[in-house]
């Protein structure tokens, strides 16, 4: 396989093959009609998927998206044409089977099961072949499980489709589709497709234009495999019933059989815990590692079975309430009783500052990567020079390269993905109407809660989730029509101007949430102005594409930094108290490759921990009582950031927020990837250590405040 893009001059090869297949099909139809034989719909329809796949490859080639050799293209085109033509052979085999006497039914059933089994094996292989370089190392038992699942689905659809192969094609297409999709997700985000991602297809479609969809030889081979499975299924067709009564009875019997198979599958899913039955455990920290080791389907099923929030071992509401009460008492006796906090409380009651939260898309300070720092990069200049913050530092997030909504959710609710489950997206899964959250909390204090995101309101189900959480207004894509664009969307400055507009029209206290879009991935060449493009080249990074993505991203951050400087300057000039909480939702997707290049051979915990470090600050345009505003440094988890900000400015806190802050004396930061103890050591969530009991306590308290209300 070559790593060079195939020239568009080769596009006629698949186009010609597609045209030849269509022509051959037309000839066969004409000859059949001339022989006064019946032309079945299948004779016309079965070759169409192959002609479509050939035409698709031609389109990809024209657009320079084929990352393989001309030889691969020729083999692909010939294989697809042969497979498509082979489906027409069913016309000649059918009469032979029809002439068989009483044993025809049994022969057909045996034939069908054999063809379904072979197609299932090929489909399971196709699912892995497209993306998993370690597919050949997947344990036989796990590949057999994948095949069994696909086969069972095919059998169910075979019966529901009245013993034809038409509906059985659906699992074949699904396997190939998921395989190719996983290939792209791995390229773009180094992540696995999770069950909850299926609920975010609208969001994925909305941002899909930001990526370059090049396919390699493995993808082409996977598609040929899918074609072979479809060709086999074309030879499955029902015999003609001898009487109307038998035909009607067969329809009912087939439907019952299909439903029964689906019922067995559903029962197995709900009663057999795959991790326990197969003796493995999927990596909740880095799921893609499990997918590569055990295969897509077993891993996907294991994650799906883990979607409900499990009740903590030994949990009961009364005990959880007592734990929370003890933490609240600890806060009231320490952090809540300091002169600084008391002074801030008195001031807040008088001034009620507007609170602005800006979650800046993919904003982070990559100077934390020593190799990049050594190459001269010192981070966003204005951001790092802002010296009068109430607090700033490292923000530990639960996501990397994507999953924006989960950082947003953690900030707004105080609930950590650590205790909900990695790979779950609460905005997509739960009704948030009854949970504690920042907009509802501030609304009760007389604030007007408003949110903005210059993208489709349906992304991450925000329109509904915001309404459930108490936001009064949501400004989305249509409210930013005609605004300046940079890289991936509306500029940060355009959203800041919208905030300033909202402040100008209403002098009452407001809570405004701004989710920016400008820095969204991908970071392909040519997506930022050439004259602004940085040129950092860390030692050890030799991949030209990675360097392009890195410098495109850093250029975006420079633009965001300029817009932030403008915004802070505008807020300084306002004659009203304003608090700004600014943070990045996650690092960009290419940092996984950057991390691997700069830190080879590092222990897993240290290596992965770096990927989930973002950054934040809490700033005010007025002198906050009890705070010297000298930019105190503190690492914190995204789920505790809002509580920390409210504490700093003297705002009233909920008992849950007090409990979170009290726990920080022992657990500095917590996310889905682990926590840092007061001893400075990083631990995984299930690690034994001096803070394990507090982790269990926090799990119980969150279950009381969140899971009990949404499960």
UniProtKB/TrEMBL annotation:
Keywords from the UniProt entry: Cell membrane, Membrane, Transmembrane, Transmembrane helix
Domain of life of the native organism: Bacteria
Pathway(s): Cell wall biogenesis; lipoteichoic acid biosynthesis
Topology relative to the membrane: Multi-pass membrane protein
Record CDD domains: LTA_synthase (cd16015)
InterPro entries linked to this entry: Alkaline_phosphatase_core_sf, OpgB/LTA_synthase_biosynth, Sulfatase_N
Record field: transmembrane: 12-30, 42-62, 74-97, 109-127, 139-159, 166-186, 218-237, 249-269
Main localisation: membrane
Localization: Cell membrane
All copies of domain Sulfatase N-terminal, residue ranges: 353-641
Protein name, entry field: Sulfatase-like hydrolase/transferase
């Amino acid at each position: 396989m070559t790593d060079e893009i195939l020239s568009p001059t080769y596009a006629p090869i698949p186009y010609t093959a597609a045209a030849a297949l269509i022509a051959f099909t037309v000839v066969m139809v004409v000859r059949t009609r001339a022989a006064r034989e019946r032309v079945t719909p299948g004779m016309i329809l079965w070759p169409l998927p192959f002609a479509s796949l050939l035409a698709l490859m031609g389109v990809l080639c024209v657009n320079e998206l084929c990352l393989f050799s001309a030889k691969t293209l020729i083999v692909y085109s010939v294989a697809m044409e042969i497979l498509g033509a082979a489906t027409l052979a069913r016309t000649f085999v059918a009469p032979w089977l029809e002439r068989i006497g009483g044993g025809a039914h049994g022969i057909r059933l045996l034939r069908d099961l054999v063809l379904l089994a072979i197609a299932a094996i090929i489909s399971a292989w196709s699912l892995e072949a497209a993306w998993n370089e370690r597919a050949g190392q997947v344990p036989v038992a796990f590949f057999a499980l994948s095949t069994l699942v696909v086969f069972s689905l095919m059998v169910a659809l075979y019966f529901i489709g009245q013993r034809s192969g038409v509906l059985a094609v659906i699992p074949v297409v699904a396997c190939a589709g998921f395989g190719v999709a996983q290939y792209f997700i791995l390229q773009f985000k180094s992540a696995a497709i999770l069950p909850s991602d299926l609920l975010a297809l609208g969001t994925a479609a909305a941002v899909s234009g930001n990526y370059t969809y090049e396919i390699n030889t493995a993808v082409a081979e996977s598609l040929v495999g899918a074609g072979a499975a479809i060709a086999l299924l074309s030879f499955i067709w029902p015999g003609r019933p001898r009487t109307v009564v038998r035909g009607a009875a067969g329809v009912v019997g087939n439907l019952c059989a299909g439903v029964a198979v689906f019922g067995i599958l559903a029962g197995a899913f709900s009663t057999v815990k795959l991790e326990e039955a197969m003796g493995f455990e999927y990596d909740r920290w880095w799921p893609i590692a499990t997918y590569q080791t055990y295969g897509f389907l077993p891993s996907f099923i294991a994650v799906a079975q883990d979607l409900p929030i499990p009740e903590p071992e030994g949990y009961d509401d009364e005990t959880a309430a007592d734990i929370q009460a003890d933490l609240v008492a600890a806060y009231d006796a320490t952090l809540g009783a300091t002169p600084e906090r008391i002074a801030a409380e008195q001031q807040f009651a008088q001034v009620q500052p507007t609170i602005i939260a800006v979650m800046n898309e993919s904003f982070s300070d990559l100077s934390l990567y020593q190799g990049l720092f050594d190459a001269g990069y010192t981070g966003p200049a204005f951001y790092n020079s802002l010296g009068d913050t109430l607090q700033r530092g490292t923000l530990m997030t639960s996501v990397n390269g994507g999953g924006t909504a989960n950082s947003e959710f953690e900030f707004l609710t105080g609930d950590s993905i650590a205790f909900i489950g990695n790979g779950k997206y609460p905005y997509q899964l739960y009704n948030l109407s009854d949970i504690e959250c920042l907009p509802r909390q501030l609304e009760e204090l007389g604030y007007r809660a408003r949110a903005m995101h210059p993208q489709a309101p349906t992304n991450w189900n925000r329109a509904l989730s915001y309404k459930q959480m108490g936001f009064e207004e949501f400004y989305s894509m249509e409210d930013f029509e005609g605004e300046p664009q940079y890289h991936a969307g509306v500029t940060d400055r355009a959203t800041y101007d919208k905030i300033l507009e909202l402040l100008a029209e209403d002098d009452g206290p407001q809570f405004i949430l701004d989710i920016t879009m400008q820095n969204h991935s991908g970071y392909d060449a040519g997506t930022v102005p050439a004259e602004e493009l940085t040129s950092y080249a860390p030692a050890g990074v030799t991949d030209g594409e990675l360097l392009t993505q890195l410098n495109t991203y850093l250029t975006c951050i420079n633009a965001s930094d300029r817009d932030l400087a403008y915004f802070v300057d505008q807020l300084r000039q306002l004659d009203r108290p304003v608090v700004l909480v600014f943070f990045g939702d996650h690092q960009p997707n290419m940092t996984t490759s950057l991390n691997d290049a700069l830190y080879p051979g590092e222990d897993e915990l240290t290596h992965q921990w770096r990927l989930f470090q973002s950054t934040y600050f809490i700033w005010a345009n007025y002198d906050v009582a009890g705070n010297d505003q000298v930019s105190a440094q503190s690492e914190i988890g995204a789920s505790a950031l809002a509580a920390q900000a409210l504490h700093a400015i003297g705002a009233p806190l909920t008992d849950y927020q007090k409990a979170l802050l009290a726990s920080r004396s022992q657990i500095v930061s917590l996310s889905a990837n682990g926590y840092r103890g007061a001893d400075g050591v990083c631990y995984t969530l299930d690690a034994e250590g001096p803070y394990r009991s507090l982790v269990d306590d926090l799990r119980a308290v969150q279950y009381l405040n969140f899971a009990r209300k949404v499960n």
